[in-house]
Design goal:
One of its GO terms (biological process) is proteolysis. With 470 residues, the protein is of the alpha/beta class. The protein has two domains: 124 residues, Leucine Aminopeptidase, subunit E, domain 1; 318 residues, Aminopeptidase (3-Layer(aba) Sandwich), CATH 3.40.630. It has 16 helices and 19 strands. The strands form four sheets. Strands 6, 7, 8, 9, 10, 13, 14, 15 and 17 form a nine-stranded mixed beta sheet that branches. It has a five-stranded mixed beta sheet with strand order 2-3-1-4-5. A three-stranded mixed beta sheet has the order 11-12-16, covered by helices on one side. α14 links the parallel β14 and β15. α6 runs antiparallel to α11. It starts with 17 loop residues before the first strand and ends in a 6-residue tail after the last helix. The model has no long low-confidence stretch (mean pLDDT 95).
Length: 470
């Protein structure tokens, strides 16, 4: 994936930037005190109600825009939604704008980040116009961090949105290699039958049925030489037919997004490296296509993982946890200070929490509290789910050590997380993300979306004892 696409940036500070007022319905009676009498009368005559995302440009006598009103909606609208004023970025005419209202730092940061995220367009196959309105970074916000968050999110969205024909395992590896080169890191990839020699048998088993030019591979990137070690593992299933347990057409339609975990860890890595967070970073991505061929893995095959555990395959469509297991076992050998997996892993997580709130799992209560608090700060919702020990028996079949797809249809996200934990060294956090925005929302167009990355970035100082450094 090219890095020459427009990057989200703030306008330079300037007194000439057009003043932008954020207005709630409760503010309307007092507009006369904030605006000139003429502009207050203009807003009233135009029927401006300050609904969420409403925009009204205020002209001078010559018709030139000299101020803007942006609606913030009522208390209920703000409680329900994120980035609700961000559509202004797409609706305003070209020019630079500065927020002149006094907001809390958190509210100003949300408004500014939403403005940047609103500028995303997936234009690889179709020319699209990007917003020409630019925002001056509000006073008190960390502009560099917000720009890095948006840039990482744009990368994640581009990767997920790209069809599988143009984003196979080799393409994903090329993107990772470009990221490593950009940030001065090391890059290695193990491909095809070399996975067997490298003792990564489950990655090989899942991807071996794909065409030769889409052979399975493990991407391995490292950055930095000092500080605590953070290892990110992202599920890179570039397309998932379900294997011999083939998916129905309705379930296969979105499977270009099944590499959303890989896309998210690459976006997060881009954020971390852009901000020079003082740590060592390793990124592992098992990149495969779960295809159908004469050599595809079969139901009730038994595979032996890198760490020696045997796994009975009771559904070839539960392949993500297999490729992650080998990568987690490899990562654990290095004893990272924090091990994180991100994956579009289970439909059960969507049934439980819907597309907008991914669950995360950890045994560490303090870490869970730090991540939950960061999710609120970063406006990146998450919800902790339990590694419920009573369900361990569900992933233990009679034939092998583990079952990749326990029957019964209950607790599917939890049993998948428990399966992964068998391969992961502590401290470990797992995110079961969706990676897709089903319908457009402020700052989030329909399509690929990152989940959990901003929250984790925000939590890193607390999680790794970095003393707030970013």
């Amino acid at each position: 994936m090219s890095y020459d696409a427009p990057q989200p940036t703030f306008a330079p500070p300037s007194d000439a930037a057009i003043p932008l007022h954020l207005v709630t319905p409760a503010d309307l009676p007092d507009l006369a005190g904030r605006l000139s009498p003429q502009h207050a009368a203009f807003a009233q005559g135009a029927g401006f109600t300050a609904g969420a995302g409403d925009v009204l440009c205020l002209p001078d006598a010559d018709g030139k825009v000299v101020a803007v009103l942006v609606g913030m909606g009522n208390d209920e609208a703000r409680r329900r939604g994120r980035f609700i004023a961000s559509p202004a970025a797409s609706r305003l005419p070209a020019g630079d704008y500065r927020l002149i209202d006094t907001l809390s730092t958190a509210a100003a940061a949300e408004f500014a980040l939403g403005w940047l995220l609103e500028g995303y367009r997936f234009d690889r196959y179709r020319k699209l116009t990007r917003p020409a309105a630019r925002l001056v970074a509000p006073a008190g916000v960390n502009a560099a961090e917000l720009q890095a968050m948006a840039a990482g999110e744009f990368l994640t969205r581009d990767l997920i949105n790209t069809p599988a024909a143009d984003m196979g395992p080799a393409d994903l590896a090329a993107t990772a290699e470009a990221l490593a080169a950009r940030h001065g890191g090391s890059f290695a990839v193990t491909v095809g039958d070399d996975l067997l020699a490298a003792n990564l048998p489950m990655i090989h088993a899942v991807g071996r049925a794909a065409a030769a030019d889409r052979a399975p591979r493990l991407i391995d990137m490292s950055f930095g030489t000092s500080g605590p070690l953070l290892t990110l593992v992202g599920k890179g299933v570039c397309f998932d037919t379900g294997g011999l347990n083939i998916k129905p057409a309705g379930s296969m339609g979105l499977m270009k997004k099944d590499m959303g975990g890989a896309a998210t860890v690459l976006g997060l890595a881009h954020m971390i490296l852009t901000l020079a967070v003082p740590l060592r970073l390793r990124v592992l991505i098992p990149a495969v296509e779960n295809s159908i061929s004469g050599n595809a893995m079969r139901p009730q095959d038994v595979l032996t993982a890198r760490n020696g555990l045997t796994v009975e395959i009771n559904n070839t469509d539960a392949e993500g946890r297999l490729v992650l297991a080998d990568a987690l076992a490899l990562a654990s050998e290095e004893k990272p200070d924090l091990l994180v997996s991100m994956a579009t892993l289970t439909g059960a997580a969507r049934v439980a929490l819907g597309p907008d709130v991914p669950p995360f799992y950890t045994d560490d209560d303090a870490m869970a509290a730090q991540i939950a608090a960061a999710a609120v700060t970063a406006r990146d919702p998450l919800w902790r789910m339990p590694f419920h020990p009573a369900y361990e028996a569900l992933i233990e079949p009679a034939v092998a050590d583990l079952d990749n797809a326990p029957g019964g249809g209950m607790a599917g996200s939890i049993t998948a997380a428990l399966f992964l934990r068998r391969f992961a060294a502590a401290p470990y956090v797992h995110f079961d993300i969706y990676g897709w925005q089903p319908s457009a929302a402020p700052a989030r167009p329909k399509g690929g979306v990152g989940q959990g990355a901003r929250a984790l970035l925000t939590a890193l100082p607390a999680l790794l004892g970095l003393g707030g450094a970013r």
